[in-house]
Amino acid sequence: MRYLATLYSLLCLATLAFGSGRSIIRSRQATVSLDSIQSNGLQNIVTWDKYSFFINGKRLMLFGGEVHPYRLPVASLYLDVFQKIKSTGMNVVSFYVFWGILEPKRGEISFEGFRNLQPFFDAAKKAGIYLVARPGPYINAETTAGGFPGWGSYTAGLWRTSNQSYFDAYTGYIKTVGQKIADNQITKGGPVILVQSENEYSSWKSPYAEDKQYEQRLKQAFIDVGITVPITTNDAHPNGHYTSVDVWGYDSYPNNFDCSHPTTWSAAAVPENFWSAHLQYTPNIPNAVYEFQGGAFDGWGGSGYETCAILTGSDFERGMGLSIISGWSFSDMILSLLQERNCHVYDLFESLHGVYTSYDYGSAITEDRRLRDKYYELKLIGQFLAVSPAYLTMRPQNIGSSQGKFTGNQALKTTQLLDVVGNQTAFYVVRQTDASLNSAQKYTLTVSTSIGNVIIPSIGGSLTLNGKDSKIHLVDYLAGTTALVYSSAEISTWETIDGKDVILLYGGTGELHETAIKTSSTPTVVSGSGTIKTKSLSGGVLAIQYITSGQTVVQLGNTVLYLLDRANAYQFWSLQADTTSIIVKGGYLLRSAKVEGGTLALTGDLNSTTSFEIIAPSAASQKVTFNGVNLEISKTAYGTLTAKKSVTLPDVKIPDLTTLTWKKADSLPEISTNYSDAAWTTVNRTSSINPTAPTTPVVLYAGEYGYHTGNILWRAHFTATGSETAFKVKVSGGAAFAHSVWLDSTFLGSWEGDVLHANYEGTYSFPAGRLTQGSAHVITILQDHMGYEEDGQSASDKFKSPRGILSYSFEGSSGTKIDSWKVTGNLGGENYIDKTRGPLNEGGLYAERQGWHLPGFDDASWVAGKPTEGLASAGVAFFRTSFDLNVPVGVDYPISIAATNSTTNPYYRAQFYVNGYQFGKYINSIGPQKVFPVPQGILNYQGTNTLAISLWAAKATGARLDTLKLQLTAKIESAMQSIILQPAPAWSQRKGAY
Ligand code: GAL
């Protein structure tokens, strides 16, 4: 690490008087000189000091979210997601790169189809979003094998260590992907500002410990391939692992992942050790939280993403998010408050705590790109940080000693943050001592200000903090030329427009707030029904007291105050048109503002007829257009503009899936008498490096034969002794997996799956009298592969946990031998066929091997049959239909496939394919997911679409889908860029398909 400037002087910590109750704590002697600006010596565009990052010499708060491009396989939708993020005030997105889908066959790396990263880089750049690349090689991410390729399961050596064979395994990937990232670094005009090495390299299976050689080599591998921007890492907790990167940081998930109890918070959800850990490990770099909970994953049998959205909703963003920004821990960089992790199936299932198809995460932006309420709450935080540079050089003064401080109320904790560089502004972050409580607390805040000690509110009354809430009270905050001596109401944003400081202040509905301003003017309510009380304080300061309810506008001199309740504050957007700042109220989403020759051109999305209030320089808003349509504008009494945009959301015809023509075919010919498995892979390995030592004569782990995903089929040929009564078999597939067993064409039984079992031993009785001595038979086993386990604990090699058959025996006949075993998964295994849709799109069902799921397959010879009619016995049926969509352009109408729960014959699982892309796995008896979003771009909104469904009935009584439909999840007029269809190659005869 090289210091660009070495001037360094001591931070004189403020003298803190933490007495009981109302201690006055404010020191103006906290002075800090220019601390050293540091770089990694490889470039000087992205630098840092102990307070924050700098980009091109400009200090800035990096505040952002997480997006996984591989979970949204429509490249032309990336810009939509980035623009939505940008409009919250955030400026950065981190993203994982999934090694396993890029190098499914060792040595053959492909960026084909949705795996191409370049459109992601380009869209970020276009939206003005910086990127933090997280290429692993290990990523976790609730992704099969935590991102490792399937072939890792049979590759020797402990992974996530300095083991040479692991090094050899990842080197090619790091070189190739590192090069792509390097080409898109900010130093080359791209958006990438940081690269994360490894992921939560934070725990090790005994007797192994942190492997510094691995850390060093991996960091060097990135540098060798041309990564010059700073290298970071995210310790799972602030425990000081892998601090040799340039800017170390850590993760935090204060509300955990139990979405089934979405309102249950632990009393002390976040340990209060983050700041001290930062000081202990890396005091000279910014305190970076690289993952902060933006949502939660949900597993098979879980409670659904809407419950995760509550667990991590607006309350969480305020109660936890604000606190982490400024209170408990204080952070200079936060990623992931928004965890927009669009997902599609691609079998990205973790096991054990396996997650289902969608990875919506309950985040601010839904999987189908709608904005949740928590998006608007996040916008309040993002916009505030974007206009509050003082935050960047603040230091918390009383971490660990905050209970009752400044308020005298022991039920509250208050952290004082002082801008130790600007030496003027202070934030007081108030939160509940017991984070789990829902009850409100009354308090007053005693602080030191530029006019001396003040008790807020000074006009009388008290402030209120609701349960699970948190607030940032401001002291000596400068908004343009307006000096706010204090404000209990929070700022959502402010701008100086036409010489007036327009300041948006908000609080909860009905809350009493007070803002004190240095002014000689008399405030007047110019709009709204709210009233104000005033009191002159010393030093020419006027305190204004009000209730935040609706919207009230107050003018005093060159200052305009918008006094807002939260619902109103949500509606404001802060937009930048080149050098012109604009504030607009109204609209589901505003994306951009542009000024050309006196015309203000706004773009955005509306879900109903919308009234706008536009606060823009008058020279820049002589005319206003919205999405290109001229708005009729009028002026308010206090000079802002109002306009109305009517919205008609066109009706579209969504095909009724039940009335379409469906075709049906059997997808389990493998159990017919004369089926030949000659083309299948012969199971012939007799040893394995797998940590789970095989117990069978030949290794029955599908991964050993190149099958790492989807359905796996096994065939065991044997000659009976005549005394066999049953076949006992232990199959491993990952949580919620199932297996079914046949003797020749006779169904013996199934394990239908549950959320607990990653493997299951079943005993399947043979029909009496069938196995006569010397008769030849075949046992067919169909199983699910739900993805490999993650490898969260380094050196555990847990991701190698086999999928396949762990043991078997014949009851009643210990001497029966299997003459030969055969296996198949997806056609081609690691030489997967569909390079466009990638290696996880297809499994081993007959239909998939033949490509029946693809558009263009000729099903004319198939019988008629609907998935809602299903199949009458155990087995697998495959269904196909097609339908037309005609959705006009200029709207965003997300579409999902929705099923309902079948209560009779519940044991079945279905996979949905849209234009050949696998987009859902529905397990009727486990759930919870019944609605499967399919993005536009996979769905052709102006043309014909192919829908294919596999249905595996696990019981002799068969199964059918209860109902099946396409549904719109929103109707929005949208300025999103037009969608380019992802390539969806049509069926062609597959060479060697069996
Ligand atoms: C973190 C990990 C992420 C993801 C997250 C939970 O520990 O770094 O990859 O798994 O937890 O969603």
UniProtKB/TrEMBL annotation:
<dbReference type="InterPro" id="IPR025972">
    <property type="entry name" value="BetaGal_dom3"/>
</dbReference>
<dbReference type="InterPro" id="IPR025300">
    <property type="entry name" value="BetaGal_jelly_roll_dom"/>
</dbReference>
<dbReference type="GO" id="GO:0005975">
    <property type="term" value="P:carbohydrate metabolic process"/>
</dbReference>
<protein>
    <recommendedName>
        <fullName>Beta-galactosidase</fullName>
        <ecNumber>3.2.1.23</ecNumber>
    </recommendedName>
</protein>
<dbReference type="InterPro" id="IPR017853">
    <property type="entry name" value="GH"/>
</dbReference>
<dbReference type="InterPro" id="IPR008979">
    <property type="entry name" value="Galactose-bd-like_sf"/>
</dbReference>
<dbReference type="Pfam" id="PF01301">
    <property type="entry name" value="Glyco_hydro_35"/>
</dbReference>
<dbReference type="InterPro" id="IPR018954">
    <property type="entry name" value="Betagal_dom2"/>
</dbReference>
<dbReference type="InterPro" id="IPR019801">
    <property type="entry name" value="Glyco_hydro_35_CS"/>
</dbReference>
<feature type="signal peptide">
    <location>
        <begin position="1"/>
        <end position="21"/>
    </location>
</feature>
<dbReference type="Pfam" id="PF13364">
    <property type="entry name" value="BetaGal_ABD2"/>
</dbReference>
<feature type="domain" description="Beta-galactosidase">
    <location>
        <begin position="391"/>
        <end position="572"/>
    </location>
</feature>
<dbReference type="InterPro" id="IPR036833">
    <property type="entry name" value="BetaGal_dom3_sf"/>
</dbReference>
<comment type="similarity">
    <text>Belongs to the glycosyl hydrolase 35 family.</text>
</comment>
<dbReference type="InterPro" id="IPR031330">
    <property type="entry name" value="Gly_Hdrlase_35_cat"/>
</dbReference>
<dbReference type="Pfam" id="PF10435">
    <property type="entry name" value="BetaGal_dom2"/>
</dbReference>
<keyword id="KW-0325">Glycoprotein</keyword>
<dbReference type="Pfam" id="PF13363">
    <property type="entry name" value="BetaGal_dom3"/>
</dbReference>
<keyword id="KW-0378">Hydrolase</keyword>
<dbReference type="InterPro" id="IPR037110">
    <property type="entry name" value="Betagal_dom2_sf"/>
</dbReference>
<keyword id="KW-0326">Glycosidase</keyword>
<keyword id="KW-0732">Signal</keyword>
<dbReference type="InterPro" id="IPR001944">
    <property type="entry name" value="Glycoside_Hdrlase_35"/>
</dbReference>
<dbReference type="GO" id="GO:0004565">
    <property type="term" value="F:beta-galactosidase activity"/>
</dbReference>
